[in-house]
Amino acid sequence: MAEAGTKLSLDQKIQAVRDAFAAFNRGDLKALSDTWSDDFTWHARGSVFGGDFKGKDAALGAIARYPQTFQDITLDFHDIVANEKHVVALVNSSFKRGGKTYQDQLVYVFHINDQAKATEGWLIADTELAKTAVGG
After folding, report:
1. For a pLDDT cut of 70, what percent of the chain falls above it?
2. Of 17, 26, 39, 127, which one's alpha carbon is 20 to 30 angstroms from that of 92?
């Protein structure tokens, strides 16, 4: 984390996102939410779980639906890049549901503040794949 009054480096911002994904991958939703600011907002686009979720509790409730609905979720970085305003993670994903395996390429976009906390996040995913996976 940066000292008070200093900016995070791009590598530090990327590490904050890596830490959040690591927490999700090990099923530690508390540690995941600890990587967020108190006013974190989650935007799920292209998802059957879509919507805008404001605040840690709402965002955690939205994100917790994924492991409750899908099994064996894997999220592997294809690439992760950053600039002063955004961290963008290109992610290869797979999960199981109803005996079938689904694969997708996802895009996550985050705003990371100088306390190494995400203040806002977006998920962009294949709407039709997600709909098919949940039986819609």
Report:
1. 90
2. 39
